[in-house]
TrEMBL record:
Gene Ontology MF annotations: peptide transmembrane transporter activity
Gene3D superfamilies documented for this protein: Dipeptide-binding Protein, Domain 3, Periplasmic binding protein-like II
Biological process terms in GO annotation: peptide transport
Protein name: Peptide/nickel transport system substrate-binding protein
Recorded family membership: Belongs to the bacterial solute-binding protein 5 family.
Signal peptide: 1-21
Annotated Gene Ontology cellular component terms: ATP-binding cassette (ABC) transporter complex; outer membrane-bounded periplasmic space
Residues in Solute-binding protein family domain copies: 95-512
Top-level lineage group: Bacteria
Length: 630
């Protein structure tokens, strides 16, 4: 059976252990012997990161998994990871080194000095240096022609700046304190600083190539920005899996890419990967990854119970699947493992307050309308029906016992009261209904709306089906619009949606932006145009009302404050305003879900989490250290 690592510690050190690479994959050793690959000690850097994560393993084997669609880049990110300067320890509290071997922070919280690993290389063997960092920051992230700068690289509205000190040392500087910055660097977006290999990506950048048009035409791109994304990707987008030629810092490199025509995605071990085990053996142990693309959740579940996956949760973790997965453990030669939900709410329903239809926008911006929908939900019925009873009714925000817990934010308007919901809707002028019992809006159209859900969340789909029936009882009709992640994100960014239902990581956990408390990033799907106004400094988007601007002021004060007690006070002020406005609503606390792990797969640590704050198991639970027993 599968052996689960029990060690709680994770040693991630470099020169402190005087680490030297000694062992390598047999196929790499053969290439070294033939002169086609440098010795392993030259490939992993002078300061490799030592990952002491369970037992010292052996090389070989394949990791088979499933993808929910040809657009399921989320599973790819969860399994392969996105390697940034720092990452979170699996205790979810401590930041530890990653691509950077260490860092220093100035006392005033304005300067962050990072130290890269000497001799570290991209997957094609080219050195990783501060030239790559300067290219990523100055030519990509701070390039307004390429796109707007993410809030993760700002202190309030003030962007970062870069000071290069030497080939392996650089400093990120802000004009004021940025207490959130290190946590943001552990997120996928933060990895952008070490994501773009200059020697490769500069070929597709107009500042380095005066003859881009032939490349644009050959790629079928509309402009250099589209070409650049196709070739060099983005840490959080599906394009990063399109180009096998792109140099990476990941444990595995693309072979057969994730594109519209793929049926199977394959990756192979990175010969220049920069981590070693406690004995000095280069990671990863497993040499090949194979992701089979499915078109529906039922087919994925059938593959799982047939033993065709070695490690899988995403796409098969619906509560309804748990009994059949458990019943087929022996036949499929696997065990179940628990995935702990850490988000503040598993199903966070967001009405689009920036709707382009003025009648719908006016309705959605009525607080009584949102309250009516919230108390028009029988959350316990949703939990019992769709989650087999595994859940707790909840709005949003940190759970009880957390420093940032806000009772009103978490528990208001949870009671099921369809009589009061009907009265509120009547009071909004929605007192007329059509022959189907659907309420009529002010212009006579029925109150029928679409709710966008990603196809990788089967349990949320099941939950919304129950909510749909409940809301029909109070005269509000919804239809499910199940789409892939890229379309889901595009529709919400453009404010083309009516509602979205998504997993809400609203716990204010490390490195998380408070998107449930104010419109601040693309998770704030209730107000994408207010978010755009904030992130562009008012250059585009829609100017928000004063209560939103007040929250932006508080958020900037949080960012510029390094006193932890003062930050808690400011977060509570933010939560109080968000609770008063009640712009979106939740259904239940995150339940635990279950996946399958093949018997014989070793070093699989218990307590894995499901979160969008970092790729999991990659980056935190270190699948590069997994190996096959025998």
């Amino acid at each position: 059976m599968s052996r689960v690592a029990t060690a709680i510690g994770l040693v991630c050190l470099g020169t402190a252990l005087q680490a030297q690479a000694k062992g390598e994959r047999p196929e790499f050793a053969a290439l070294v012997a033939s002169g086609d690959l440098p010795p392993v000690a030259e490939r992993v850097s002078d300061e490799p990161q030592v990952v002491d994560f369970g037992d010292v393993g052996t090389y070989g084997g394949k990791w088979r998994f499933g993808l929910a669609s040809s657009g399921d880049d989320g599973t790819m990110r969860q399994h392969v990871g996105t390697n940034g300067l720092v990452r979170w320890h699996h205790n979810r509290e401590d930041l530890i080194p990653n691509v950077a071997r260490g860092w220093d922070v100035s006392e005033d919280g304005t300067e962050f000095t990072f130290y890269l690993r000497k001799g570290m290389r991209w997957s094609d063997g080219a050195p990783l240096t501060t030239e790559d960092v300067a290219f990523a920051i100055n030519d990509v992230l701070l390039n307004s022609d390429y796109g707007a700068l993410s809030t993760r690289f700002k202190a309030g509205e003030d962007p970062m700046s870069l000071e290069v000190i030497d080939e392996t040392t650089f400093k990120i500087v802000f004009p004021r304190a940025n207490g959130e910055f290190l946590g943001q660097m552990a997120r996928e977006e933060g990895a952008a600083i070490v994501f773009y290999a200059k020697h490769y990506c500069a070929t597709f950048h107009p500042d380095y190539n005066d003859n881009l048009q032939p490349l644009i035409d050959a790629a079928g791109a509309s402009d250099w920005q589209t070409l650049f994304v196709q070739k060099c990707g983005d840490p959080t987008e599906g394009q990063r899996w399109l180009n096998p030629e792109r140099p990476v810092l990941d444990p595995w490199v693309m072979e057969n890419p994730l594109d519209g025509g793929a049926t199977v995605v394959t990756l192979s071990a990175n010969p220049y990967f920069w981590q070693v085990d406690a004995a000095g053996n280069q990671l990863p142990y497993i040499g090949a990854l194979e992701g089979r693309i499915f078109q529906d959740p039922e087919a994925m579940t059938l593959a799982a119970i047939a033993g065709q996956f070695d490690f899988q949760a995403r796409g098969i973790d619906a509560a309804a699947n748990r009994p059949v997965l458990a019943d087929n453990r022996d036949a499929g030669d696997y065990q179940l493992y628990e995935v702990v939900g850490v988000g503040g709410n598993y199903n966070w329903i967001q009405p689009n307050l920036n709707h382009k239809d003025p009648v719908i926008a006016n309705l959605f911006n009525q607080k009584d309308f949102r309250i009516a929908l919230s108390i028009g939900m029988d959350r316990q019925e949703v939990i019992d029906t769709a989650l087999l009873g595994d859940g707790t009714p909840w709005q949003t925000g940190p759970w009880e016992g957390k420093k940032l817990y806000n009772e009103r934010l978490a528990t208001q308007y949870l009671e099921y009261d369809p009589e009061k919901a009907n009265a509120l809707l009547d009071g909004l002028g929605l007192d007329q209904r059509n022959d189907e019992g659907i309420r009529l809006m002010s212009d006579g159209r029925p109150a029928r709306f679409l709710i966008d859900i990603r196809n990788t969340y089967p349990q949320i789909i099941d939950m919304i089906q129950v909510v749909r029936a409940q809301w029909a009882e109070i005269g509000i009709a919804i239809d499910l619009n199940v789409v892939d992640r890229s379309l889901h994100k595009l529709r919400s960014a453009n404010a083309d949606h009516d509602f979205t239902a998504d997993s809400g990581n609203t716990t204010l956990s490390p490195g998380q932006l408070p998107s449930a408390l104010l419109p601040i990033d693309d998770s704030s799907r209730h107000a994408p145009l207010w978010t755009e106004w904030y992130t562009t400094g008012g250059a585009s988007g829609v100017e928000p009302p004063e209560h939103v601007k007040k929250r932006y002021e508080i958020w900037e004060a949080i960012n510029s404050n390094v006193d932890p007690d003062r930050r808690v006070t400011l977060y509570q002020q933010l939560s109080d305003i968000a609770a008063e406005e009640f712009e979106a609503f939740g259904v239940t606390k995150n339940p635990s879900t279950y996946g399958v792990v093949k018997n014989g797969l070793m070093n699989v640590l218990p307590g894995m989490v499901s979160t969008s704050q970092w790729p999991s198991p990659a980056n935190v639970f270190m699948p590069q250290s997994w190996y096959w027993n025998g």
